[in-house]
Amino acid sequence: MTEHRARLLIGIALSSFACGEEDSTPTPMGPIELVGTWHSSFGGDEVITATQWGTATIVVHDNQANSAVLQNADDDLFFPSKFSKVVWVEPNGGRFSYCTVDFDLDTKEAALASPRTADPSQLETSGCGGFPWTGLGPTFELSGSYESTFGTMEDITSDVWAISGAGYETEQQVIEFNNQDNVAVLQNPADDAFNPSKFAKVVWTEKSAGSFHYCIIDFGKDTAAQARTSTKTADAAALDTNGCGGFSWTKLEPRSAG
Fold first, then answer.
1. SS3 category, 8
2. Strand locations in the chain (E)
3. Range of the domain at 157
4. What CA–CA distance (Å, rounded) separates 241 from 113?
5. How does pLDDT run across 70-89, given as a tens digit for each residue?
6. Cβ atoms 124, 134 nearer than 8 A
7. Residues 155, 119: one domain?
C-alpha cells in the first residue's frame, strides 16, 4: 500500500473517530467489495458483510488499496478485542485471495500504520508470512440437507458429503467442485469398507425446487487427478431408469430442519 493511501486511510479513520461514528460504519466509498459467503482454500466457509468479516468487525476499509482493518470480538478465543490488518488481491471470476499481514494490535491506528506487507506473486506458496494466502471462492451449490429416493439422509457442505441410513454410513471429503460444469471429486474415508481413501467423480443435474439428481460416474481412483480426468459419463435422459452406469440416478430432495 502506498504512503499516500496509508495517510488517506488514517485520515478517514481519525475523521470518523472525531465525528463519533461507530467503527463498523462503512467508509464513504461504500461497503467492502468482498461481501458474500465464500468457501476457503483451507476448508470451511467465510461470511463477509458490509460490517463483519466472520466474527470480526470491519473497522475501516479501502477498496482501491485492497486493505482493511478488523477488530476481533470481545470473546475471540486467541486475541479478544485486538486489531488486525488484512490485504487482498482484486477479485477475479468470483474468486480472490487475502492475507492477514498483521494482528494482535492494540489500536486501529496501529493496524493502519503497520508496515507489514504480503507477496501476491506467491499466493499459493509462502507469500503470506511464509504461508499461502487464503483463497476464497464460491461455496458448493449443493450444500444442504437432503433425503434420497433410496431412503438415505445426505448432508452436503463445501467440504463434506455425508450419507447415513438404509444400512450405510460414510463421510466423503469434497476435494474439489465446479458449479458451472456440475462436477465434483470426492474422497472416501480411510476406513471405508470398499474403497478406503479412494477418489470418485460425481455429476449432478441443475436444481429444481431445491431437488436434483446425481450420479457417481467413476470411483476407486488412486488420485484426485485420475477422478477429475475420467472420461466416463452418465445419461441425464434416463434419470429414473439406467442412466447412471445401468442404474437410476440418485434423487435428493430438501430435508426440513425438523
1. helix
2. 36-40, 45-48, 52-53, 56-62, 67-71, 83-88, 96-105, 134-137, 144-148, 153-156, 160-165, 168-178, 183-187, 199-204, 212-221, 250-254
3. 144-254
4. 64
5. 999 999 999 999 999 999 99
6. no
7. no
- Residue pair 222/198 in contact by the 8 Å Cβ criterion: yes
Task: Give the end of a domain, one of 86, 109, 137.
Answer: 137
Q: Which of 130, 159, 127 is nearest to 46 (CA)?
A: 159
Range list of H helices, the chain: 3-18, 108-112, 224-228
Based on the domain organization, do 120 and 178 belong to the same domain? no
Residue ending a domain, choose from 111, 137, 163 = 137
**Closest among 170, 175, 198 to 185, alpha carbons compared:** 175
| pLDDT tens digits for range 122-156 | 999 999 999 999 999 999 999 999 999 999 999 99
pTM: 0.80
CA angle 47, 103, 130 (to 5 degrees): 90
126/169 same-domain check: no
